[in-house]
Amino acid sequence: MHRLDIxxxxxxxxxxxxxxxxxxxxxxxxxxxxxxxxQDPFHGGERWDYVYYLKRGDxxxxxxxxxxxxxxxxxxxxxxxxxx
Length: 84
Description:
14% helix; 5 strands; five-stranded antiparallel β-sheet; mainly beta
């Protein structure tokens, strides 16, 4: 029996994530990664969370998460992790 892959969230390509730099504007981040899956409404949109989940038909899973923190309209910090 063949099972389909199930994807959810933002497709995070490693080469695009590696292009993120401190000092970038929100427009530049959006160009690289697209719209974030989650934006922190309590801090004026200063934190964007990109989340990706893939469950392959063979049962293997892949999870990625990248958090971009802004301060004064520029990227201040970038945090990310990958789980497979």
